[in-house]
Amino acid sequence: MPFGISSFSFASLQRNFSSLGTGLAESVRRLSTGSRVNSAKDDAAGLAISTRMQAQVRGNTQAIRNVNDMVSYMQVGEASMSKIADSLLKIRDVAVQSANGDLSVNDRGQLQKEVDQLTQEISRIIDGAQFNGMNVLKNENAMDIQISADGSAKMKVSGMSLAGGATSKTTTEEVTDTFQVPVDPVPASAAAIAQAAAATAYMNTMLNYKKSSAQTFMTQAVNRSGMTVVSGRVRKTGSNVVFNPQTPQNTAVNNIFQAIQSTYNANIGSKNATTLMISAAQAVTNAYIAAAQPTPGGFTTVTTTRTVSTTQTTGNPGLKGYDANGAAAGLFDVSSNANAAESLAYIDSDIDKLNEMRASFGAYQVRLESIGNSLMESVSNLNSSNSRISDTDYAVEFAQMSKFSMISQSAMAMMAHANISSKMVLNLLGNNSSQNGLFVGGVAR
Asked: N or C end of the chain: which has fewer CB within 10 A?
């Protein structure tokens, strides 16, 4: 049986020992860092998923801080409004006391001093309720609260202000009104009526000759019009037969005659000449009759423009007792019995407004706290998911490290054994050489 270790076996032993060292180093690194994925070569997909989860966790963590900041904003406003409510209730007590009839003018003067101090304190609270440079009780601008890791989810907080309730603004605008107006009928002029009467009479006369020849009808048209013929009855010019009557006394009759004559000249020799002349005369007559009719009544459209003024409270209506700057408007007057009774209405209105705003702040706080709890639950779940992907499983890694350590120690023993075996072979070779003699350059050694 051969004795010793071949060079191939020794190289294989060294390669295995190097691989065991790499595995042992990887286990030590995972145990020391607590992370299973320390670089992309460990788990490329796991690293990508873990990075996205870390972005989500960090975004949600910042969103939680955003929500907490807004809760603090609301708490500042709530605390300030609580003090304002105490002052308004005290002012109301004083107003009720001043409205009693058993107080003197001097007594009411002392009560007014207390009211003035309380109203000034309310003004100071409104002006001094600050959060990060923003006036919580004089903020009419809506705010968007980022409540998610990305830009998809925002919570809008409406602008609210306790100042400005005593401020109003008047605006004007032009308004156009359109309506129908009845129109009376307009009678025709006396001249038009007279012309229509003359035309009708002339036409009715000519209708008596509707069965006559064209020549006869034309002759009667001249005679019945009240005209006389000069230079004979008929004068022929070219192919037309022209009558030369004098100017008639009536314009309507003349126009009818001209229509008859034009038609006669255009239809000489036609069997229907008389019928055509009657139609032409009737058309002119109808025109005069239509002109004599009255213009019918009805409706016409009339458009007018007017200016409308509107007075409304500007901005977000606040407490009636304070202007846009939060300064007292002087409405809380208890210097007399009547003024104290009137002030009660303003005080009650301001208490209602304050309660409304406090309710809004409280509702926002409830929602913000719910959002915060939801975000914290999401962060916890994401951290758990990310831990399962990227964190070290210590039980597994300790087992792996023990395995690599034991195998490494065994490999080291094998390498030591290989070295000892090699030396033993060399020693045996050396002893045999000494006994048999070695000749170097012909000299026995």
From this structure: N
